[in-house]
Amino acid sequence: MSVKMREVFFEVFSNLPRAGPGSNESTDRAFNSLKNLPAMPRILDIGCGPGMQTIELAKLSGGQIEALDNHQPFLDQLNLNAKKEGLSDRIKTVNGDMFNLNYTKESFDIIWCEGAIFIIGFEKGLTEWRPLLVNKGYLVLSELSWLKKDAPEELKSFMKAMYAGIESSAPEGIDENIEIANKLGFHVLNSFTIPKKDWWDNFYSPIEAKLPSLKANYRDDPQALQFLASHFEREIEIYRKYSDYYGYVFYVLQKV
């Protein structure tokens, strides 16, 4: 992605409630699967984005959270919201890289990652992050997963193009991801598909609301207009057509 298109990309994402599908309700459901937590768990939120789930985790857990992302405006937005919620003393933002986590072994009771593990890859993320958890610590993540077999060719082609140049391959099915987790030393406590409204309420609907003004701003820039059409309008169109075939699935894993 060129520097100019990266700027357009983050202009779309600026001041959104979330940087991907999800909701506080789904975060709550995943968190409530965790048992026997310490009174103030140590939590690492990887790829936190603007941090809606980080704020919710702070409220739910009573713990100390390190919220890591490599896009400083997201962290600035999270810092502002944490201050408004009176949670600045329990949320520390870190501008960092999920490929290079500089933490000692067994530093965290919980590692949380909503919608971002695809950047490093499901299997690689589980492998590299597991040592950072205490014994019987939790890794909780949401990952794009196939919900049905035999997806239409249009959808498979879109997914292949969307994942081009990304560390991970195209999505796996739920059973395949559970098998990978078991193989890598995790017990799967829970898995569930987030509801379709989680794609719209805090993500696609706010993006759709922004697109007309963005297209007007870039009306003399064919490259930017094509980028908006291919990366956002097309993605939303595909989800409208094929949302029965894929979705974000929460995996609640415990280190064994």
In short:
This protein is α/β, with parallel strands linked by helices and 256 residues long. It contains nine helices and seven strands; from the N terminus they run ααβαβαββαβααβααβ.
CATH topology of the domain at 20-152 and 168-195 and 244-255: Rossmann fold
Largest sheet: 7 strands, mixed
Mean pLDDT: 95
What is the CATH top level name of the domain at 20-152 and 168-195 and 244-255? Alpha Beta
Spatial strand sequence of the major β-sheet: 3-2-1-4-5-7-6
Globular, elongated, flat, extended or rod-shaped: what is the shape? globular
Q: Determine the strand fraction and express it as a percent band.
A: 15-25%
- Strand segment tally: 7
Keywords:
44% helix; Rossmann fold; 9 helices; globular; 21% strand; alpha/beta; seven-stranded mixed sheet; 256 residues; 7 strands
Explain what the structure shows.
There is one protein chain. The protein has a seven-stranded mixed β-sheet, sandwiched between helices. It has helices spanning 3-13, 24-31, 52-61, 72-84, 122-129, 153-162, 174-183, 197-217, 222-242; strands at 42-46, 64-69, 91-95, 108-114, 133-146, 186-193, 246-255. α2 (24-31) crosses α3 and α8 runs antiparallel to α9 (222-242). It is built from nine helices and seven strands, in the order ααβαβαββαβααβααβ. The relative contact order is 0.17. The chain has 256 residues and is α/β, with parallel strands linked by helices. α3 links the parallel β1 (42-46) and β2. It has a domain at 20-152 and 168-195 and 244-255: 3-Layer(aba) Sandwich (Rossmann fold), CATH 3.40.50.
